[in-house]
Write a structure and sequence with these properties.
The complex is a heterodimer of chains A (about 525) and B (about 425).
Chain A: H1 21-41, H2 49-72, H3 93-111, H4 127-131, H5 133-140, H6 146-168, H7 173-200, H8 225-233, H9 235-260, H10 263-266, H11 271-278, H12 291-319, H13 331-352, H14 359-382, H15 392-411, H16 416-419, H17 423-428, H18 430-441, E1 445-449, H19 459-462, H20 470-474, H21 490-494, E2 500-504, H22 522-529
Antiparallel strand pairs in A: 1-2
Chain B: E1 3-7, H1 11-23, E2 27-32, H2 44-48, H3 63-67, E3 70-74, E4 77-81, E5 86-89, E6 94-96, E7 99-102, E8 106-108, E9 121-122, H4 127-136, E10 146-149, H5 153-164, E11 169-172, H6 185-197, E12 201-203, E13 208-213, E14 219-224, E15 230-232, E16 235-238, E17 242-244, H7 247-250, E18 260-262, E19 273-275, E20 280-282, H8 296-310, E21 323-328, E22 331-337, E23 347-353, E24 360-366, E25 372-378, H9 384-392, H10 397-402, H11 418-431
Parallel strand pairs in B: 1-2, 1-7, 2-3, 7-19, 9-16, 10-11, 10-16, 11-12, 18-20
Antiparallel strand pairs in B: 4-5, 5-6, 8-17, 13-14, 14-15, 21-22, 22-25, 23-24, 24-25
Helix pairs in contact in B: 1-8
The chains are: A mainly alpha (about 525), B alpha/beta (about 425).
Chain lengths: ~525, ~425
């Protein structure tokens, strides 16, 4: 069957998917810029600040010019022609190659930064990192680190591919605004503000500068001792930041998620989401839509959440004191607060929402709840020095390695061209798990379906980066209320029949299942749907 | 426990099977000679365009059928023996049934054009048609030009498909404007413009005279009726509508006309034999509907209804208000209620078109009673539920125009046009 020809692995491709001469020129421009980074990496020649600027400019012009030519030459509309024929976007040779290069880059970045030229013990940088030194000095006054290099390239990717995405969806204002938003938050909050904040630091004033929108538990190290200490010692500003950090997850996040769903964060603000929605957009259809994948997703992402709660509790516990007279928040009070909060959430869900939980969700919730309370109780009564059987430091470092580095970085981004662009967000992100839990239980957000108009074509499911089988709901005329939905809006955009709409509305009637769709006999609909 | 056998695994047959499973413990078998599993026929175009792979067009995962105890049989029914309630297959075996549902769908129309059976000449309906398309028109080097004959929904989709692979397309439309036997003038003209905007060689009021063959029995060119012009091409798409695919029913006792004749209960003349979907033909049309409704939605609805009847709750096919949808290149189309190409007697049309964007609506209403009859909307999404309600309530056109924003279903932050539409509607009253 010739349609089964895997064009991506064969040399004969449908003509339409060839690149135009202009696109080839821009491709070359971008490759030259990229090649300069490679030259720098291997210490071939010394570059000035101009060299750095030129390389970045060439990459930006290459991506931007290519996108301009590719999209503006055609009428506005859905641009998915040939997605499954192109090697890079269909797990073809280019896709695998890209995945491997990205993965290797992440491994080097996290574990072998000296290979990128990071100077050890105050020595001057060399290689790729020294290439970024002039820019780093301009922004924060100091030499670059591997994280500065990464942050710059990350921001460049979101801006350049964000521009591309804006052109691709120039007929869709929801997509446009959302993309402007992630570009703004990346450039301002994630990149520039922390750099400027670090400028404020001096010998006698040290504030942990960081991306303020990076909320615990995504920012799993936010409440570690050195950070909390420095925030407290930085006076009112630091204390404000600390309070903001706690309020973010306990107050601000629940309110915004109630009003708008978790999309306010995941596809409008978050940096991981920002990269996924821009540079990762060509890979969104590679996510696994099977029910089996959904089951794995639920267990894995919630296990990561439990892990981060345990780890953070243990870490904070270690640096709190025993004496309530020195500081009100002692080890015991802290443990009671944590146990109390978890019990409260657990009780509220079990009392008011248990009928909305699946069987495995109940097992999981009860199981994890019992384990956590058991660990806390065991500790309380035995007065062991280790809170959760392990040293807090062991928990912290294994979380940092397994989740912080391997999962979110190496797998999460390196495997874009293989598993799709939201692997981390879907299977690993504890922040997404919290927001998603609330989105499923207590939020006005849902995707509504339009009566009986669905033709089960499958565009929505195919292009859902979170691997939600949107069609399964749409063809039943059922609203989509799923914890994993990041509200990117692409299902609605690619629907050829105008069936899907992202909406915030009242909680009432949010979850509705219809056996018989609108358009049929009114009596039959009544008979079957009201059973 | 009865054995319900369904011939055809399209939307009609599969919907019937799913609902019978929900309502009963009957043994259910679905027969298909087309594909092993149910796929969405409306999504075939996206496979060719590279938006999806075949797997993505399957609405249920492959384990679904066994889990729900719906047996799938691959085979071609040669003969239906209604006396012994037995199906005989081309492969030689046979299968007994207690109740039979014929859901065999459609086949592309061919109107006896010379050369219509040449290699490289085909319609676009089945999975096999798609496979053939990949052989005769995989890219621009194999297919230097394609000619599409017939200006309906499949014709424009096939044009879009071929165009997505940079194959030049000549689109022959018999009518003076695209689909203007269904769409009012303003709507139809918007689509003409859209077709041309995408670089399709649209030939209106143009008929096919014959298709010419090369020495290998492959299409070489077509001849235009009106001008005698010869257009060289490597592929011809015949998309002048579809008709019921009932060859396997023809030589049985089951009564047929153009389709399998059924009463309002979707029962044929033979007890325990039913027909649903594209292949079913009503003795009398229902309301403004055609006696044969070759539409995805009606196939699904008939499947829902026949399942009730088979499971003991005999129920007539009694559809609610008409609705339909399509996408013409980048313009989405939805319709609710009845809008005719020309207003019916005592009816009038209100047409609104955006100044420079490809959006328009046409509303049909009764000029005397002012009752709202239906709406076509192009480029603006609207809510099925709201229009279904307004139609049931016999709302007036003024009410509909006034409350139009309630029906809007465009994504958040999209520009809204209701006030513009309302203004034009009011002005129309002043100028009359």
């Amino acid at each position: 069957m010739s349609h089964k020809l895997n064009h991506s692995l064969s040399l004969a491709k449908p003509d339409a998917f060839h690149t135009s001469p202009k696109q080839k020129i821009f491709l070359a421009v971008g490759v030259i810029g990229f090649f300069m980074l490679v030259l720098a990496l291997f210490n071939m020649g010394s570059f000035s600040a101009w060299g750095f600027s030129l390389a970045i400019a060439l990459i930006a012009i290459g991506i931007g010019g290519f996108a301009t030519n590719a999209y503006l030459a055609k009428p506005a509309g859905i641009k998915n022609d040939g997605v499954w024929f192109n090697s890079i976007s269909s797990r073809g040779l280019l896709g695998w190659l890209t995945g491997m290069v990205l993965t290797l880059f992440y491994i080097v970045l996290y574990f072998y930064p000296h290979l990128l030229g990071l100077g050890a013990d105050g020595a001057a940088n060399t290689g790729l990192i020294s290439f970024f030194d002039p820019f780093s000095k301009l922004l924060n006054g100091g030499p670059a680190s591997q994280w500065f290099v990464y942050g710059t390239l990350y921001t460049l990717a979101i801006l350049a591919f964000g521009y591309k995405f804006l052109l691709k969806y120039r007929h869709n204002r929801y997509e446009q605004l959302r993309t402007y938003s992630v570009m703004f938050f990346q450039l301002g909050f994630a990149f520039l503000i922390p750099e400027f904040m670090s400028r404020l630091n001096s010998e006698n004033f040290s504030l942990p500068y960081y991306d303020l929108k990076n909320i615990w538990p995504l920012n799993y190290y936010n409440f570690e001792q050195y950070r909390v200490d420095s925030m407290i010692s930085a006076g009112d500003v630091g204390l404000g930041i600390l309070i903001f950090g706690v309020a973010s997850i306990l107050i601000i996040t629940p309110i915004l998620t109630y009003k708008y769903g978790k999309r306010w964060y995941c596809s409008w603000v978050c940096g991981c989401g920002g990269l996924a929605e821009t540079a990762g957009d060509p890979f969104r259809h590679l996510s696994d839509k099977t029910q089996a994948a959904w089951k794995i997703e639920r267990w894995v992402v919630h296990s990561v959440l439990v892990f981060v709660v345990l780890m953070t509790t243990a870490v904070i516990y270690t640096y709190l004191g025993y004496d309530a007279e020195k500081y009100w928040l002692t080890k015991d009070i802290f443990l009671f607060l944590v146990a109390g909060l978890l019990t409260l959430v657990f009780a509220l869900v079990m009392i008011f929402k248990r009928h909305e939980l699946g069987k495995d969700a109940k097992f999981g919730a009860i199981g994890y709840f019992v384990i956590i309370l058991f660990l806390i109780g065991m500790h309380y009564f035995s007065k062991e020095s280790n809170l959760f059987l392990f040293e807090a430091e062991t928990l912290r470092s294994s979380y940092g390695f397994l989740i912080g580095s391997i999962f979110s970085g190496v797998i999460g981004t390196g495997f874009y061209p293989i598993f799709g662009n939201r692997v981390w967000c879907r299977f690993g992100c504890p922040m997404a798990a919290i927001l998603g839990f609330q989105q499923r239980m207590l939020s006005r957000f849902r995707i509504t379906t339009n009566g009986g108009q669905c033709i089960s074509c499958g565009n929505c499911s195919t292009y859902c980066e979170m691997g939600i089988d949107v069609r399964a709901y749409a063809q039943k005329g059922e609203n989509i209320v799923r914890s994993s939905c990041v509200g990117c809006g692409i299902c609605s955009a690619v629907c050829p029949r105008g069936v899907l709409k992202l909406e915030n509305d009242s909680m009432k009637g949010r979850i509705n299942a219809n056996e018989i769709l609108l358009g049929n006999d009114v009596n039959l609909m009544d008979l079957v749907n009201q059973k | 426990m009865e054995h319900v056998v369904i011939i055809g695994n399209g939307i009609s047959g599969v919907t019937a099977a799913r609902h019978i499973r929900k309502l009963s413990k009957n043994r259910i078998t679905i027969i298909s000679a087309e594909t092993e599993h149910f796929f969405s026929r409306t999504a075939l175009m996206y496979i060719y365009m590279g938006h999806m792979k075949y797997e993505h067009t399957k609405p249920y995962e492959d384990w679904f059928w066994e889990k729900n105890r719906i047996e799938l049989k691959s085979g071609f029914v040669n003969n239906i023996d209604t006396r012994s309630k037995t199906l005989h297959f081309a492969e030689g075996d046979s299968l007994k049934y207690d109740k039979l549902i014929v859901a065999t769908g459609s086949k592309p129309n061919k109107f006896g054009w010379p050369g219509q059976d040449l290699k490289g000449v085909q319609g676009l309906y089945s999975k096999q048609d798609l496979d053939n398309l990949e052989i005769y028109a995989p890219d621009q080097s194999v297919c230097k030009r394609a000619v599409i004959v017939g200006g309906g929904l499949i014709g424009i989709e096939l044009s879009e498909m071929l165009h997505s692979r940079n194959i030049p397309v000549t689109f022959l439309v018999r009518e003076p404007s695209f689909w203007d036997n269904v769409l009012p003038k303003g709507d139809s003209e918007l689509i003409n413009h859209e077709i041309k905007k995408h670089g399709i060689d649209l030939r209106l009021a143009t008929n096919l005279k014959e298709i010419k063959s090369d020495e290998n029995g492959r299409v070489k060119s077509v001849i235009i009726e009106e001008t005698g012009e010869e257009i060289l091409c490597d592929f011809v798409g015949l998309t002048a509508g579809v008709s019921p695919n009932i060859s396997i029913v023809k030589n049985s006792d089951i009564e047929t006309k153009k389709g399998v004749l059924v009463n309002r209960y979707l029962e044929t003349n033979i007890p325990d034999v039913y027909a649903i979907g594209d292949c079913a033909e009503q003795h009398e049309p229902i309301g403004e509907r055609k006696s044969i409704e070759a539409v995805w939605y009606t196939g699904r609805m008939m499947g829902e209804v026949v399942a009730q009847t088979i499971c003991g709750n005999r129920m007539a096919y009694n559809p609610s208000h008409w609705f339909n949808s399509a996408k013409f290149f980048d313009i989405e189309y939805q319709t609710y209620g009845w809008v005719f190409s020309e207003p019916k007697e005592n009816h009038a049309h209100f047409h609104w078109k955006h100044e420079n964007e490809d959006k328009c609506i046409t509303i049909e209403y009764n000029d005397e009673t002012q009752e709202f009859k239906g709406i076509n909307t192009l480029g603006i999404r609207m809510k099925h539920e709201i229009f279904n309600r307004w139609l049931s309530e016999n709302q007036s056109v003024d009410y509909v125009i006034k409350h139009l924003s309630e029906a809007n279903f465009d994504p958040e932050f999209f520009k809204r046009f209701e006030s513009n539409i309302q203004k034009q509607f009011e002005n129309r009253l002043h100028t009359v």
